[in-house]
Amino acid sequence: MSYERPQELLKPVRRRFITLTFTIALLLELLPLPVGSTRWLPDVVAILILHWAINQPRRIGVGMAFLIGLITDVATAGLFGQHALAYSITAYLVQLRQRQLVMFNLGQQALVILALLQANQVIMVLVRLASGAAFIGWGYFLPPLVGALLWPLLNKLLLLPYRHHSV
């Protein structure tokens, strides 16, 4: 008779670490990249918001997602409020089912992350269209696929410092 191994208990996550991850993500957004490379790069800030909203729902919720979105709008000189709206809606969607998402394996979580990142992109396209901008193209919906593929690796890396290491 085989029993499933229980989920590992993690050490508490420090606010400084969460702040550091968002600072690094915002700096990545500001890096000058070659033309065309941004067509496949996922929104790292959105992925981090989803990760921390799933794993630390008391620290990163709708309000923090909105604030981080406003900071992202200012940092990227985008349409003010588009990231804030998209991030807060996707953080809300995560909070609706957070207890279930924690129990999913990384493959199932990656599928949910794909849907949430696609919703994030749709919201940003709708905001741009409402402001009078032209449709950016269907290639705009490719980065969420890359983000979902990177989800298991990113999840493992961000939780690595908080695992109990037995000596």
Task: Characterise this structure.
- It holds the Pfam family MreD.
- This is Rod shape-determining protein MreD.
- The chain is an all-alpha fold and 167 residues long.
- It has helices at residues 15-30, 44-55, 62-76, 82-96, 98-103, 106-130, 143-159.
- The model is unreliable at 1-6 (pLDDT under 50).
List the helices and strands and how they pair.
Elements (H helix, E strand, L loop, with lengths): L14 H16 L13 H12 L6 H15 L5 H15 L1 H6 L2 H25 L12 H17 L8
Helix pairs in contact: 1-2, 1-3, 2-4, 3-4, 4-6, 6-7
The SSE order reads: HHHHHHH
Cα-atom radius of gyration: 17 Å
- Which range best describes the helical content: under 10%, 10-25%, 25-40%, 40-55%, 55-70% or over 70%? 55-70%
Shape: globular
The number of distinct β-strands equals 0
The helix tally amounts to 7
Cα end-to-end separation: 29 Å
Main location: membrane
Membrane topology: Multi-pass membrane protein
Family: Belongs to the MreD family.
Protein name: Rod shape-determining protein MreD
Please outline what is shown here.
This protein is mainly alpha-helical and 167 residues long.
Key terms for this structure?
167 residues; mainly alpha; 7 helices; globular; disordered N terminus; membrane
